[in-house]
Amino acid sequence: MKEKKEKAQEQEEPFNLKKEIFEWVKILVAAAVIAFCLNTLVIANSWVPSGSMETTIMTGDRIIGSRLAYKFGGEPARGDIVNFDHETGPGNEETHLLKRVIGLPGETVDIRNNQVFIDGVVLNEPYLKEAMVSEDYHFEVPQGCYLMLGDNRNYSADARSWPDPYVPKKKIRAKVLFRYWPKIGLIK
User: Fold this and answer.
1) What kind and span of H or E run contains 25?
2) What is the gyration radius of the CA atoms in the chain, in angstroms?
3) What is the C-alpha to C-alpha distance for residues 82 and 3, in angstroms, rounded to an integer?
4) Is 87 in contact with 162 (CB distance < 8 Å)?
5) 52 flagged as catalytic
6) Annotated catalytic residue: which of 46, 66, 99, 156?
7) How far is CA 146 from the centre of its chain?
């Protein structure tokens, strides 16, 4: 009996434009808050402005990264592609960059004879666009820091040219997971 009364009242209630608009505003605000929280705390949505990571990631690609990948005890691994903040030149402000993790905390990284050596062992790098042509470098990666290089080594402004070649873990914003524009695909 009670259900019939409620249904009758619902049917008799006239359309209320203000109430309908208010309901839509609530939905839109909730969606905006959820999107803001996801984009600020969980995912990193980025546009790639340069060719330093070609052919793995191309100029103009849109990518998604996980901000949570290294937050709860996870550590960046060699080969991970990460989005991070770093100063690229003397007097420059920090900027968002995208590079591959090459050197881990405590490791010695040498670039000689156009090859990368980690603690004296040649690093296999099948992701390189072409053979690297580089000056020789010697890096001793401090604890809590990482050494980053671009995949397109001959055209990448990376640790070899930065005033401070080491990126502290706290500056890593996200681990890149996949590309969603113009083509969809996992990043390796």
Assistant:
1) helix 17-37
2) 24
3) 58
4) yes
5) yes
6) 99
7) 15
